[in-house]
Amino acid sequence: MGNSERPRRRRWLIALGVVAVPVVVAAFAMRTPSPVGHWDGAEGRDRFLAAYDQAFRDLPAVEDAIDVRTDYGVVRFYRFAGSGEASAPLVLLPGRASASPVWADNLPSLLEVGDVYTVDLLGEPGRSVQDRPIVDDADQAAWLHQALAGLPEDRFHLVGLSIGGWNAANLAVRQPELVATLTLIDPVFVFDDMPLGTVVRSLPAALSWLPKSWRDGFNSYTAGGAPVEDVPVARMIESGMQHYRLRLPQPSRITEEALAGLDLPVLAIIAGRSVMHDPGTATATAERALPEATVRVYPDASHAVNGEHPDRIAADIADFLARRP
């Protein structure tokens, strides 16, 4: 697997799907009586799904689309057949307000590691459908555990990005039976709290009635100033932010005690220029709380690290898994 990094036309575009996590704060200002995530109308849903389908064309060929019924709703997975020999499939968990298409740049190199599932997070814009309230962190772990249990395999290498990293860690500290390893890519609410400045700056971007440029501006800020262009994944994510009403609990910070109790291998990848936590604090926490973990810092990376360094991430994951028995 090559270690060189070629220019990535979708660098910022991947960021859009991982940086929107603070919108949950503003979601409380836009409550409706519905207890589950939902679209604000058919027009917004159709706009999102049209962009979703168009963006999905950039992904490699899908071997299967699988819908798993859980107590909280139906969870959509896509399976991709890899050429590598990983001991279990990788499951890719995306960031807030995004879905499977944001992994377009990552899948080619990750498929050299092994088979891959992508998942549309329950309660987020995507093709998963929430039909029961998710009220706390235990519920978040429960739906993910049930969804994985509905797949053919009995063990998985979880790869979580941003809030997807929180989802993966939250599952591992509560119901780790199906988790073989964890890879946490610049996760939020795991190794440090979110800076107040980032939370405050996200609020205007999270209000659906404000101009699209406000959401684009925040997403560019968190991607290290990378420009935002009007392409299918950008349209998909922006329309999800505008038209989907999240009804998810604010994630709780994973405690150091919980992290220290993990009895499985962990790879932590920290972006050195992330604005979603203090990178130095996050690195120190990972090294202190997970003494057996592999911690990698990418000094020049923003929170859009998976779009900036997809081949490097895949190489680090391949090396990490190769050292597992």
UniProtKB/TrEMBL annotation:
Keyword rRNA-binding: no
Protein name, UniProt field: Alpha/beta hydrolase
Key words, A-Z: Hydrolase, Membrane, Transmembrane, Transmembrane helix
Gene Ontology molecular function terms on file: hydrolase activity
Pfam families reported in the protein's UniProt record: Abhydrolase_6
Transmembrane parts of this sequence: 12-30
Keyword Transcription regulation belongs to the record: no
AB hydrolase-1 domain sequence ranges: 90-315
SUPFAM superfamilies membership: alpha/beta-Hydrolases
